[in-house]
Amino acid sequence: MRVFLCEFVTGGGFAGKSLPASLAREGALMRDALARDLAELPGVTLTVAQDPQAAPCPFGAAAEVANGDPWRMWEREAAACDLFWPVAPETDGLLGRLAAMGRAAGAEVMAPSAEAIRVTSSKSLTAARLQAAGVLTPPTFPPERLPPSMPGPMVSKPDDGAGCEATTLWPAPPSPRDVPATHVLQPYVRGMAASLTVLHAFGRVSVLAANRQDIVITDGAISLAGLQVAALDRAAPELDALAQEIAAAIPGLDGLFGVDLVMPEDGGAPVAIEINPRVTTAYVGLREALRLNPLTLLPPFARGPIEPPPAWPVELRL
């Protein structure tokens, strides 16, 4: 099986531009973890997209992107492979565009459906879909529609964004003119920040790891400093139920996906904050946590459902 792995940041997404150091480091961590796991699978011949500015991937053959149009190279490599695995932020439609490109090239694509990517790429669409399905999630408003009676604190973030990009904590509800029109506002949920690494395959939804996030707030700016992969009990009924409900609410959310959530400090049910329709940074520690190659649980590398093994905590610093 010929596999083409394309991590956007290290694989040419910044061709002809300066490569952002922090994005490149996180991208390389995910790329190398996936490439290692792909390369050791029997019968796999791996090619990895490579920006010369980025650290080289130690696994697979490099498909180098020069200063030209990376999309041409990506499309060529996707057309030559059996399986295309895009790793990209959902921002600006990047993940959706890459997945569509791979499917148009005739490759099997390791990504959710186009509709699932479209919904989860928007904070407001995600919130509306989850609320309609009865999944606990914060109410989400465009700045100009924030109810006057809504108390603080509030969080603002881009409606079309990934990770903690431009995410801000406001002690009191901000004036609409202080928040970009492309952002959304949500009530701040007090509690422990966490995430789920979820596998949806063979008609089953399994939480592979429940992770604790180390969130840092500096002058209102919210960022992720690290996480403890598998630090929480993935078998907790409320976490399993949340994963099941999300998969049912967003059809086509297949393969590996992530859920950002908060475990409220009052002991209430977990609150879903965001859905990531892709591999997340937690994957970097997943192999060590499960003590096996996680890809052996996924189609097309697994022939049928396999019960995930116990998970052990792994510390990741970013």
From TrEMBL:
Keyword terms of this UniProt record: ATP-binding, Nucleotide-binding
Coiled coil segments of this chain: none
Domain ATP-grasp: 103-303
Any one GO molecular function term: metal ion binding
Protein name: ATP-grasp domain-containing protein
Source organism of the structure: Methylopila jiangsuensis
